[in-house]
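Annex B. Sample input.
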Amino acid sequence: MKLKQIILAGLFSMSLAQTVMADREKGLSAYQSGDYKSALSEFKKSAENGEPFSQYALGVLYENGQGVAKDRKQAVYWYEQAAKQDNANAQFNLGLMYDKGKGVEQDHKQAVYWYEQAAKQGHAKAQYNLGLMYENGQGVAKDHKQAVYWYEKAAKQGDVKAQFNLGLMYDIGQGVEQDYKQAVYWYEQATKQGHAKAQFNLGLMYENGQGVEQDHKQAVYWYEQAAKQGHAKAQYNLGLMYENGQGVAKDHKQAVYWYEQAAKQGDVKAQFNLGLMYENGQGVEDHKQAVYWYEQAVKQGDVKAQFNLGLMYDKGKGVEQDYKQAVYLYEQAAKQGDAKAQFNLAVKYDNGQGVVQDYKEVVYWYEQAAKQGVAPAQFNLGLMFAKGEGVIQDYIQAHKWLNIALANGYEQARKKRDEWVAPKMTPAQIQQAQALARAFLAE
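Annex B, continued. Sample output.
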């Protein structure tokens, strides 16, 4: 090439570069002023001439439908053009498109690839997302150490989600040796940016004295910060603190307030506790409301709520007395192993209330409760064996259960054992019954 041609080529190249940059600046100015159509036009000129920022910006316009109909496929196309030229924002956005399957078939491996390209350039959000991919094993083999590595990169740049997740990794010892102090440190960094989950977890650390000296006042403070942001578990925990007077003066009205905030969000523990507060007149009293909140917890299968709601129907508190409904609820709780419900269900079968009298069912449920240490159930089971109701008469078993009930403080068992059962037994049978009782109590 002759010198004149080289000079002309260089001048043309310089002129083109200047034009491209001018188009880019016009596009940026138009975008910032909200004139998306003009921005699209100007960015398109420079993008078609290979300018990476304009290609990235064009991708954003197509993705968001700004100045043009939303077109995710075009967004992917332009992000890819810019990503191939090492534009970190485009690499991150392209990773997102593959991650979510927007404008392209979902492909977690490709998402990981592009996140990694951006992450290596220091893109904090890409570093965080790459950490997530490693933590969850999406598009890459699960690797908690790598997750910690990338979370830390992002966390040090102030990415609040990464700070929280890194704190969590230290908290539970995932991908790194468990270190409560480090967990506290990273939770604190995230709380400075108002991260509600970090505020809640920091409250837990102060309440339990993990990584920091136990301080209930600080626990209350952080629960309250998270609670005000609508964090249901924080609202529940704050209610507990007010109910029990930990870190704050006992205040049942405040407890009710915070339980209600959490209960309305479906927190089952809060629903149950709120029901208790209404039932017991702590901060508020309304048996109908107690029934309502127990019902909400029952819908989520809460065993304590099933038992308490059963009691409300049994006693006709806040609702019309209904033994059938009481039996139904006791049975739900009993099947989940609630000893009080098992005992009450046995009583219902014994008395034929809300259900046909059935001594076999009586024996079955007394036995379930008796095995869990309910002394009245042990006593009643002893009587069933003595009378042969619902079970073959067996004085050894009767003596055994009356012994066990007595050992658990149920004094009425002594008279029944000594005056009613023992006289009908041989010394050998009594010894056998005593041995069986000792074996049960030793378990």
